[in-house]
Every structure is written in C-alpha cells, then in structure tokens.
Amino acid sequence: MKFADDKNGVPNNRELYALLHISPEATDEEIRKAYRQWAQIYHPDKYQAPQMKEIATENFQRICEAYEILCDENKRQIYDIYGMEGLTSGLELGPKLNKVEEIKEELERLRRQKEQEKVLAHVQPSGSILANLSLPQFLEGDGIMRGMAMASEVHSKISKHNAISLGGNLAVNGNSGGGAASVVLRHQISSDSSVEFMGSLGLRALIGVQTSRQLSLHSTATMGVAMSLRDGSINLSNTWSRQLSETTNGNIELILGPESSIGVGWQKKEQKNAASGEIKIGTGSFGAVGHYTHRFSLKSHGRIAGRVGSSGLELEVGGGRKVSNFTTIRMLYTIGIQGIFWKFELHRGGQKLIVPILLSNHLNPVFASGAFIIPASLYFALKKFVFKPYYLRREKQKFLENLEKTQGQVREARAAAEKAQQLLQNVANRKRNKQLEMGGLVVTKAVYGNRKALTTRNRSVEKVDEVASQIIDVTLPLNFLIDESGRLKLHDGVKKSGIMGFCDPCPGEPKQLYVEYTYGGNKYEAIVDDYEELLIPQERHRI
C-alpha cells in the first residue's frame, strides 16, 4: 500500500522502512525478521566498552521505535499516509479508526482545525490591473491606451466558522466605463459543507446564495441561485466535481436562466505537466478552450492555449519564469480573429499586472511571424543575460545560508552515522571478504549526497574537497546490506538518508546515490535518485 505526499506527489520519507531495510509493502513477519537481525547487531548487552555500549543503545532505541510503529496496524497506516507528523498530531487510535479512509478523514479534520486556528483573523488581499494598449491606435495619433480595468478583493476570517470577502472593480474602454462592488459571506456548516451569501451593486447588480458539500472523499457538489436586481431574472447553477485519479479532476456545470448553458471540463496536474479543457454549449453560443503547461524546471515553464467558438478563434503561445518565491513573469503571444497581441504579465503574491498590446488588427502571415520571433528572442536574451545570472547568484546565496543554518544538524547526523557504521564494520568486512573469495558482489565505493556535488565529484577529482561537505561515504553500510544470495536491493519509495549508517548531508537539496562495485571480476557503476530503487548486480551497470 503506497501513498503520495499531498504537496508534490513525492513519496513520504518512510525512514522507518529504510532504517529496518524493508519494503513499504513488508509483511508483519518480514518486519519481525528485520527487527531481530538488527537487534543482533545493536543490542547493548553485546558490548562491554562504554563508548560502544552507548552507540549501540542509541541505535537500538531507534530500531525499537521503528518496530513498535510498523508492527501496530493503525500506527503503520497513519505513518504510511502522513509520516511521523500523523503520529504526533493528536490523532486518536482505536477501533473507531480501522480503515485508511477513516484515518485520513480524521487527520484531515485535525489539520483543518489547526489551519483554521492559524489563519483566524488573517486578512488575504488580492487584486489585478489590466492595461490594454494598441499600437495601431498609437500610430494613428489617438493615444496608445485602449482601456483599463482594476479589480481588488480582501478575504478575512471573522470567526472560527465565518469569513467575509469584499471586492470591487472598475473598467474603462474608450469613452465608456463602469464598476461594481461585491460582498460574499461564507459560513462553514461542518467539515464537509458550507454556504455562501453574496450580493453586488453596479454593472451586474444581484443577490444570491450558494451551498457546497463534499459528497464523498473524491466528489463535491455545489448548488446556487442568483437574482438580478436590474430585471429580476433568476439563474440556477449546479456544479459537480470529482477526482478521477491522483492527478486528474473533472467537473460538470449546468446553468439555467436567461442564458442557459451546460459545460464539461477536466484538469490534470502532474509534477512537470498541467493540462485543462472545457466544452460549453449555451442557448446562443458555444465554445471550447484548452490549456497545456510544461515545466522545464522549478523556475521556468512553457504554455500553449487555444479557444474556439461562436465568439472567436484564438491561439496563445508563451512562457514564464519564476524570479523569486513570490514573483513570476510571463510573456505570451496571441493570434486570433481580433488581431495579433503581445501580452506581458507580472504576478507577485496575490497581485497581478497584465498588459496586452494589440500589434495589428490584420492577420498578415509575415507580420505574425515577426511578432512571434521578436518576443521569443527577447525572452531568451533576458533569460541568458539577466535571469540566469540572477538565479545563479540567488541559488548560491540560499545554498550558503542553508548550509550555515543546518551546519550543526548535519554535524550531529554525520557523527551518528559514523557511530552506526562502527558497529556494522565487523559484519560488513566478513561479508566483503566472503564475496571476494567467491568472485561475488563487492561495493568498492559508494557516496550519497547533493546531486550537483556527485556530478562534480565524478567529473573532476580536483573538486572533491569543495563538495566533501555535501556527501557521505556509505561503502561500508552497503556491503553490510548485501544479502545471502549476493545481491543488494534498496527499496523504491524509501528515502535513503534513513538507512542505518546513512545521514542527510545536505537538507533541502536534491540527492543521489553513486555506487561502484565489482562482480565476477568485472567493474560496474550505478547512480540512482533519492527515492529510486537500487538493485545490483545488473549487466546494464557494467563499465
């Protein structure tokens, strides 16, 4: 049974499984067997010297804690879903919570409760500014500004179960303009249902009420009714949303009123890709939209979007770059029936600045090609000469800050890992000598740590001293973990820093394990990511 981390889809640390060197799928018997094997190595009664006895006691306590958690069905289920956080969150154990769904729902309830307490009385502002510019209009001498719009909203908790949102917007287009103000009061009826009361004045004056309810762990329904204060017309809306898979959601929306419509949409979000689409058919219109975003790295992404329907045809291509934790810049190129546009967007926190620039009202192929090439060239020039140097400086600064902050923690973890290796040494050496005699598997070098440091280490011997603080030698523990059949397996989905004799030498940085080994007189080499399975020997590793 495997679960993904809620935040980013990466498996939980599962360090207890790594500590006992077992799979997350291990049976109770396999857990007991692993515990007995480790206890033979680390039981304090085996050692007479005070220093060795102290090392054994410390590691034996870790083994006992892992065994107690993984042998208890409820505790293990909680640990599998939420790690150690779930075990320390106040979740009550007992016969009432004997299913994964029940445990997950209860832990979610506790999390929501903590979040509500944390954000109580917090104010969350958001807003946007849209400036429509026109190059043809400017060349004709009528000024460059086509129109402008501003919107702002403030969301605030007013009590444990109630929140209020106040918003307003103004828009000017040519010689006409208008505005609106709105208020939404939200009441949380229970952990899975809420109701909202809304009202607005201005261009779209209306009053309405909307209620939402979580029907199951994977589906939600929303129903609403709104009445226009201008003509008294009533709109009814129904939306059903369902989680189709771990990364995909679907929804159906039905609106009944003066402009009735039905829409079907879906959204899929993975670590590197995101896509969405919607088809909407109304009494007087129809349309379809689609978006696809690909993340080239943690900082940059590309985007393509299209829209077709009774109101127009449009294609949008572009990309964006994250320049800080709160700021993202996007450059987009749009071509459609309304003309050819450049669009620049600046997102910071909850605020957005959007500047569409109309380049031409006519779809000239030559002009359209030039309009696409110019911003693309500008983007790549900015990326190479401005963004990349800036990011490299920032990453280096953050790396040094993190290094300084975690120096003490890493020093202690290294010391604990070295002590654990001391007690493994005798058995590891016996296994190594036996494999050497048989011409079997022998790990000659293994290092674990910062991915960039390992790449540098493999590429240039002269730089070893610069990266030594970011890696740890784990040759001895890997030789110890070779089984009776002469094979070594590190399980998939288990973070390697939890393995006995390992530690995390660079918290917060992506890590890899690099292994050199011999088998049958031949040399082999393998490198795997932190959560990736390692199985040796394998012919494809042969040098």
Automatic annotation (TrEMBL):
Pfam families: DnaJ (PF00226), DnaJ-like_C11_C (PF11875), DNAJC11_beta-barrel (PF22774). One of its GO terms (cellular component) is membrane. Gene3D superfamilies: DnaJ domain. It comes from the Eukaryota. CDD domains: DnaJ. It is found in: Membrane. Residues 93-124, 396-437 form a coiled coil. Residues 15-83 form the J domain. InterPro entries: AtJ13, DnaJ-like_C11_C, DnaJ_domain, DnaJ_domain_CS, DNAJC11-like_beta-barrel, J_dom_sf. Keywords: Chaperone, Coiled coil, Membrane. This is Chaperone protein dnaJ 13.
